[in-house]
Design a protein that fits this description.
The protein has about 260 residues and is α+β, with helices and mostly antiparallel strands. The protein has helices at about 5-35, 45-55, 55-60, 80-90, 105-115, 130-140, 160-165, 165-175, 250-260, and strands at about 145, 150, 185-190, 195-205, 210-215, 220-225, 225-235. It is flat, with a radius of gyration of 29 Å.
Length: about 260
């Protein structure tokens, strides 16, 4: 065979390898990317993961505790499945930790199980919301709490408490508030160099300053070096226990009133 003919054949084979074979491989890879592996979420697996990692805050049945109540058709922070899976993976600092150790499949399973809570009927409450409104007013709850755009924002706002918490949790917080303090809550007492005492809820703090909101709603920004004393009253709250103040019926009515707005959320 002539050398020229051999060179021509070699070039043809090289061209086939360079231009034809890689194109076929590229097409196969593109087809693989354009057709992701979609699997049906495993609710049973999601239930096991939820009970192991999420129930401590959200309750074994998703009705809430330290974390929000999930027994709702619509979740405020997760309007769709993509948002819900992002929350499970990334968390909501500082209240909810990241689920960095979950695989994509596990996240999808947990999200599907959480969505199943929205199909559960809301538990009935024994109290009467109308009577509960009277209890709320009679005990001056609006002096410290905002509820349905009325009241005072010294303590936590209660408008969405029916969405964030379970009735059992709210009952416990009313009866023994020091045992159900919100995440990050800290009651403090500062004494200035002149002897003036400022008591209230810590709103912010860094190495050099602290900001406090007192019961009158006034904000105080104080430099720590100018303070004679700063007490952090951990485990304490300005809210009294209503264990002996409210009867069992009044407590039921108050909870029914606080949860009466959850349907509009």
């Amino acid at each position: 065979m002539r050398p020229k003919m051999i060179r021509t054949q070699i070039l043809l084979l090289f061209s086939l390898y360079v231009f034809v074979i890689p194109h076929s491989l590229l097409s196969a890879q593109t087809e693989k990317v354009s057709k992701p592996n979609v699997t049906v979420p495993d609710l049973a697996a999601g239930k096991r993961m939820f009970e192991r990692h999420c129930s401590l805050c959200h309750g074994i049945d998703g009705k809430g505790g330290r974390g929000p109540n999930l027994n709702r058709a619509q979740l405020f922070r997760a309007p769709d499945d993509i948002a819900l899976m992002a929350i499970i993976s990334d968390g909501i600092p500082p209240e909810m930790p990241e689920g960095w150790f979950f695989s994509e499949e596990e996240v999808a399973n947990i999200a599907a199980y959480v969505r199943s809570f929205g199909k559960i009927s809301t538990e009935p409450l024994p109290g009467d919301p109308a009577r509960g409104a009277v209890v709320f007013s009679k005990n001056a709850c609006a002096r410290c709490h905002l509820f349905a755009a009325a009241g005072f924002a010294y303590g936590p706002e209660l408008t969405d408490v029916g969405v964030r918490r379970s009735p059992t949790y709210v009952r416990a917080a009313i009866v023994a508030p020091a045992e159900r303090l919100p995440e990050g809550f800290l009651f403090v007492r500062a004494t200035t160099s002149s002897g003036r005492k400022i008591e209230g809820i810590r709103m912010n703090e860094d190495t050099f300053t602290i900001q406090i909101k007192d019961s009158a709603g006034s904000f105080h920004s104080l430099r720590k070096q100018d303070l004679k004393d700063l007490q952090k009253l951990r485990g304490q709250t300005p809210m009294p226990s209503y264990k002996t103040i409210l009867s069992a019926v009044e407590l039921d009515d108050l909870i029914a009133y606080l949860f009466s707005v959850r349907g509009a959320q």
